[in-house]
Amino acid sequence: MRRRFRHRLARVLCLAAGLGLSFAAQAWGPQGHALIADIAAAHLQPAVRAEVSSLLAAEGHHRLDEIASWPDAIRHDRPRTGRWHYVDIPLDAAGYKASRDCPHDHCVVARIPYFAHILGDRSASQRQRIEALKFLVHFVGDVQQPMHAEDHDDKGGNDVRLSYFGHRTNLHRIWDSGIVDHALDLHVRSDYSIDYGPTRAAAIRLDRQITPREREQWTRGINSRHLNAAAIRWANQAHRLARRVAYGDLPAPPRRHWSETYQQQAWPVVRRQLERGGVRLAAVLNTTLGR
Ligand code: ADE
Ligand code: ZN
Ligand code: ZN
Fold this sequence. Notes:
By secondary structure, the protein is mainly alpha-helical. The protein has a single domain, classed as Orthogonal Bundle (P1 Nuclease). Helix content is 57%, strand content 3%. The protein has twelve helices and two strands, in the order αααααααββααααα. It has a two-stranded antiparallel ribbon. A hairpin with a 2-residue loop joins β1 and β2. It is globular and about 55 Å long. The two termini are 30 Å apart. About 5% of the residues have low confidence. Bound molecules: adenine (ADE) and zinc ion (ZN) (2 copies). Adenine (ADE) binds next to loops. This is Nuclease S1.
């Protein structure tokens, strides 16, 4: 992560914290996005890897994980992009409905095919394609986060205040980062930077657990002409996990001594969503940029 971007992200977060705002609609924390980018990077076709590297290099970056949280850093300056990070499918609804959940394409489901199209368009400017790559890497991650695919009149869980392992936080944030942090011990520094070494090592460990059968199932039907349908399937899958696990396994208040039990229920789900994110991101980049 480049310094300027890191400081900007830190400034936005400090500002939000200082104002006592829950930083609504944060994505996976920087660790989650970096893990997804690292898993994906290991599965790019050689020609795709080369093209991605050349786009990254134009901005002085070397690896996909360095740009994976960029859309969070610019949200403050570009407020219209805020709604692109999630899709508010009502928790009790059967599934995604574009007219209800994605007006004017301002949701994560619509932004995935949109940015994939720009990335794959070699007549678009390099600047546009680099930006599309940064949004795409981030949003293919976000749509796997169960709390980014639902709303329960609580801003995707941001209004559900609770205490997790002694930290005052909310339901949305524990799914963004609390559960990952607790399981993998990957901490974010106060300037919001992360240590790439341990994160990359953790990504290799997650990647090794993915079976060939899972890889095949998770990427079935992904091709550049049908990315909208794929994004809808991913959002519906995440929405079901929100209902069944994130809310379904949440004890009613007052919640005492619940963190360890919840962590054991949630971590396998979070881990699988990170793995799916990585595998699916690789497939999206391969189909978008492959020849
Ligand atoms: N704000 C409103 N709904 C949200 C969601 N599902 N995720 C993040 N931020 C939100
Ligand atoms: Zn979030
Ligand atoms: Zn996000």
